[in-house]
């Protein structure tokens, strides 16, 4: 009886590990896809150029993001 419970625990731990690996792989894919899109849309040619633009645009991006979050709760047309 105890052996079955131990096996079940091991099975659950293996499932958790597999799901964590899948999550990590999906996060990496998202980062790669976003980075690729930025390079293509902004016609960036180097990592240095990308990092420089990110540094320069961070404040504006945060402001836009905050405004979008606030506007999501507002009624249309207000």
Give an account of the 3D structure.
The termini are far apart. The protein is mostly helical. It has one domain (2-67). It has two helices and no strands.
Would you list the SSEs in sequence order as H and E?
HH
Spatial separation of the terminal alpha carbons: 64 Å
- The coarse silhouette is elongated
Helix content: over 70%
- Alpha-carbon Rg, integer: 22 Å
Main sheet properties? none
Unreliable stretches, pLDDT < 50, 5 or more residues?
Answer: none
Number of E-state strands? 0
Which percent range describes the beta-strand content?
Answer: under 5%
Structural class computed from helices and strand pairing: mainly alpha
Continuous helix count = 2
Average pLDDT figure: 90
Count of all domains: 1
Strand and helix layout:
Elements: H1 2-41, H2 47-72
Could you write a compact summary of the structure shown?
The protein has 2 helices and no strands. By secondary structure, the protein is mostly helical. The relative contact order is 0.05.
Features:
single chain, 78 residues, mainly alpha, 2 helices
């Amino acid at each position: 009886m105890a052996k079955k419970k131990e096996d079940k625990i091991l099975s659950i731990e293996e499932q958790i590990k597999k799901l964590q690996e899948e999550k990590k792989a999906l996060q990496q894919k998202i980062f790669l896809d976003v980075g690729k899109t930025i390079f293509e849309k902004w016609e960036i040619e180097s990592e240095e150029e990308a990092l420089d633009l990110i540094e320069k645009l961070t404040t504006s991006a945060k402001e836009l993001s905050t405004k979008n979050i606030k506007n999501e709760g507002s009624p249309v047309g207000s």
